Amino acid sequence: MRRSWRFISTVLGIIFRHPVAGTTIIPVLPDGRIVLIQRSDSGKWGLPGGMIDWGEDIPHAASRELEEETGLRLTKIKRLRGVYSDPKRDPRIHSISILLEVEAEGELEPEDKLEVLQVKAFARDELPLGDLSHDHDRQLRDYLEDEITVA
Q1: pLDDT for the residue numbered 88
Q2: Which of 60, 78, 99, 106 is deepest in the core (most CB within 10 A)?
Q3: Would you state the pLDDT for residue 91?
């Protein structure tokens, strides 16, 4: 019993004392528009993305999250654009976000209708910057300024 409790307390300590890894995606369509999602929890626009599942690598997580949240298929990971680790970047949990620029195609139709209210493609000069969810304003601004960021 004591050995089991020690194992359980160790696992809980790891889960609750260490940041969770996730990926944030900048999906660029063939015409150059950038796809954002409107989140159901806050009503704010943001980049698609989410947590990396146990046993999953970053490319698979990005592909899965992109498809779930936008309906798009990831055709190519173009570049790693940054790593964001500020404990306040996500109000729900301390997470580290790996920002990827990807090429994507398909129909804008989210599979996860509980998490996503709508999906929309924006021209660069039409992006609703200023009140995006999480730290996505910073991530998109860094991207638009062609910065590779570790923060």
Answers
A1: 85
A2: 99
A3: 78
User: pLDDT tens digit string along 105-144?
Assistant: 999 999 988 899 999 999 999 999 999 999 999 999 999 9
Structure tokens given for 31 = 């015409």
Q: What is the pLDDT of residues 66-113, one digit of tens each?
A: 999 999 999 999 999 999 999 888 777 888 999 999 999 999 999 988
DSSP conformation class of 8: H
Place of tokens 């990807």: 102
Neighbours of 141 (CB within 10 A): 14
Which value, in Å, is the radius of gyration of the alpha carbons in the chain? 16
Residue/partner pairs of 77-82 with CB below 8 Å, 24 or more apart = 77/101, 77/102, 78/28, 78/102, 78/103, 79/148, 80/148, 81/26, 81/139, 81/142, 81/143, 81/148, 81/149, 82/139, 82/142, 82/143, 82/147, 82/148, 82/149, 82/150, 82/151
Structural domains in the chain? Answer: 19-150 (3.90.79.10)
d(CA 69, CA 104): 13
Q: Which amino acid is at 79?
A: R
